Amino acid sequence: MVGKIDKQPQLNLFKIQLTQFIAKEHELRVLADKIEWDSIEKDFSKYYKNFGRPSVPIRKMVGLILLKYIYNLSDEAVVERWKENPYWQYFCGEIYFQTQQPIEPSEFVHFRNRIGEKGIERLLKLSIDLFGKEAEEKEVLIDTTVQEKNITYPTDAKLQKRIIDKCNKIASKEDIKLRQSYTRTLKQLMIEQRFRNHPKRRKKARASARKIKTIAGRIVRDLERKMNEEQLSHYQNEIAIFKKVLLQEKKSKNKIYSLHEPEVRCIAKGKEAKPYEFGNKTSIVKTKTSGIIVGALAFKKNLYDGDTLEPQLKQVNRLTGSDPKYGIVDRGYRGRKQILYTQIISPKKLPASASKYKKQKARERFRARAGIEPVIGHIKQDHRMLRNYLSGTQGDAINTMLAATAFNMKKMLNRIKKEVINIFCYFFQKIFIVQNFIFLSLIKKGDFLRDD
Predict the structure, then answer these.
(1) Residue 287: its pLDDT value, please?
(2) What is the pLDDT of residue 446?
């Protein structure tokens, strides 16, 4: 059942309303007044049942999740800081200053799962709508990046050790007595298999790595043999992953790089510092002039960049209600000329007969395209896309769109702050001009030097 905020509460004699002591010109207050909260509540109410205990109000949950990504905080940190900040409380729809935690941090997990990818996409649309017609540009910049998952750097030995640990844990939970746990043996083997590139340790390290793989296979078979039918059906997915990891080799396709995140892909983007990144491919679309993100999409597979264009441009149409005329891309999209109603423009050698204007226009477009690179950097560093802590492919999609939403919201906050500063500067400038005018008029009349 949907929880609601009382929009016309009874006045409290012993409490002061937030509006009476927070600054009217503060950017968060101005932004909160700009957002159409009623529309969000109406769209999200369909995800709730019509009976049961009232939930946390939708505005409060949406406000908290936006603040979390705007200020790059964890679930726990945003809840703690909310208690201290009256502007955050006003943004989330509170009337009076609160001294208690608004929610338990685990509520974020339930809310994200409740509204899913479509609900998060609605929040991205909300951030785009704040800019009005400014977001409907004819030319957009498109690029892909890797959203890294929160996993350790995968190696065969690490994965095999993890399999052994998980098998021992399952056996302990189900009261299954394995032939051997290999706890002490494994500890020594993990030490020996390190530094395998050293000439004097290579032979022993490789032998230890082979031994770890043998033990992992042995313990999986032992566990599977001693399980009953009910236990086998319960753990069949985990055992299937264990077997796939043990069978995969150097040139195997669709490898598993993490036992708890088997959907993770290894993506090579040609970076010198990071030759390989482990996560999912993400596409970002930015307007050329205004710099608003009008599309952000996560992909389950490591697709060729050109194949990401159609689903990405469909999302742009859903969010803005129009199709861009031109999509400016890099050479990674080579081969695509037209997608739906959008012409794809990538760097290429112009014919000798091309006019000076055409050459200048092409140069200007591709210089502008390079501007999406630092934007992606800001989304990663400032809005939680550098490391994705959300689980599964749904977590990939949610984190990508929330990071893009936060970027747009931050852009609007900075704009509001700049407008407020400009108003103050204009006001003081006018005062200075008036004072100057009065001073000069007094000098002209001689009143300033007259001795009374």
Answers:
(1) 97
(2) 63
